[in-house]
């Protein structure tokens, strides 16, 4: 059985207004991950993601390129706090921060 990890991602570039959050949600759900994604007022996108390390690694690779209309300049990945996800299953979009 794979280890479960939680990561906080900050994605910078042209990532708002191009379907990035919707696409990240779809990819995270496809990979069986839990968490949320939101726009940030600074123009970046933030995601808190929890699940098996292999699935999270696959999402991180996807996040480096995003959907076709996006331009990803960099992805910062730090340890996340799984308590912020709570007991909710699945992946969702939350309000801008």
From TrEMBL:
Residue ranges annotated for the Acylphosphatase-like domain, each copy included: 6-95
Transmembrane segments: none
Pfam families: Acylphosphatase (PF00708)
EC number: 3.6.1.7
GO MF annotation, one: acylphosphatase activity
Recorded superkingdom: Bacteria
Catalytic residues identified in the record: 21, 39
SUPFAM superfamilies linked: Acylphosphatase/BLUF domain-like
Keyword entries, A-Z: Hydrolase
Coiled-coil stretches: none
Keyword Hydrolase in record: yes
Catalysed reaction, written as an equation: an acyl phosphate + H2O = a carboxylate + phosphate + H(+)
Family assignment from sequence similarity: Belongs to the acylphosphatase family.
Protein name in UniProt: acylphosphatase
Organism: Candidatus Accumulibacter vicinus
Gene behind this protein: yccX
């Amino acid at each position: 059985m794979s280890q479960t990890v939680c990561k906080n991602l900050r994605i910078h570039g042209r990532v708002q207004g191009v379907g990035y959050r919707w696409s990240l949600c779809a990819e995270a759900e496809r990979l069986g991950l839990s968490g949320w994604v939101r726009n940030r007022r600074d123009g970046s996108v933030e995601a808190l993601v929890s699940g098996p390390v292999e699935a999270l690694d696959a999402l991180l690779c996807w996040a480096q390129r995003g959907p076709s209309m996006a331009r990803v300049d960099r992805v910062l990945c730090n340890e996340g706090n799984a308590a912020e996800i709570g007991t909710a299953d699945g992946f969702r979009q939350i309000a801008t921060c």
